Amino acid sequence: MTLARRTPAPFRHIAAACIALAALLSALLSGTPALASCAGMAEAPRLTHPYFMRAAATDAVSRVPEGQLRIRFVGHATFEVESPQGAMVQTDFNDWVRSHRLPDIVTMNRTHDSHFSYAPPEGIPHVLRGWDPNGGIARHNVQFKDMRVRNVPTNLEPVGGGKFANGNSMFVIEAVGLCVAHISHLHHYLSPEQLRELGLIDVAFAPIDGMWTMSHDELFRVLGDIKARVVIPMHYGSQQGVQQFIARAEKNWTVRQADSDTMFVSLATMPKKPEVVFLQGH
Predict the structure, then answer these.
(1) pTM of the full predicted structure?
(2) Confidence (pLDDT) at 113
(3) Which residue among 24, 222, 268, 280 is least packed, with the fewest CB closer than 10 Å?
(4) Whose CA is closest to 210, among 247, 184, 235?
(5) Which residues pair with 143 in a beta bridge?
(6) What does the alpha-carbon distance between residue 19 and residue 17 come to, in Å, rounded to a whole number?
(7) Cα–Cα distance measured from residue 24 to residue 19, given in angstroms and rounded to the nearest whole number
């Protein structure tokens, strides 16, 4: 598979660097973690930069630098996101595709058992299910160290009696001024209310199978509504489907392939033009 590559720009934007440094110093002096505030900020200004840093897989257990998030693609729909204070979340935690590290927070959806665990380990402090086992609508908003994880309910199909079938969620991870959205097993367009709940999204994990979740037409409309700076594909359906996704994405975005399963992102280094980045998976 041949993917377009982007040459990093040779310098940082001075204003972005100064603002980012000031925010970091303020957080350090006050002792308050630098958290994101993506919800309800559609008109807020953004620091931008045309590249972001990547890390080798061997760096997967080292400390995350201040002001950055480490993102590692575990496989299928599972990502590992870690903050500078060591808070770690794993998305669509399941019994089939697992990281060797025990997270602090896990998110799950119930579409297939490759997206949830029947018996998550007892050592995980926060297990966030994208559905309500009692038949209602799941609501989560968890703060752990310098990371916040919340959900936006999706896939709601009224069946009468105030109950819903197939209730799942998109999860938003907020830390170091960044907002990362896991689209998960979404099956429909997002409503204005759901988009408002999501807020400004910097990085989106997107299912590109084109058949089990959404068609590519539906997915690209959703991605256009979310307007993330970086889209990281997941949930592949077939080689043909991947190539079709790439051909469609290349019409408007830079598409490239990272040389490892891990990358670092920061607010100051978000690309000016949206990028699609394929991480190496397992």
Answers:
(1) 0.80
(2) 78
(3) 280
(4) 235
(5) 148
(6) 6
(7) 9
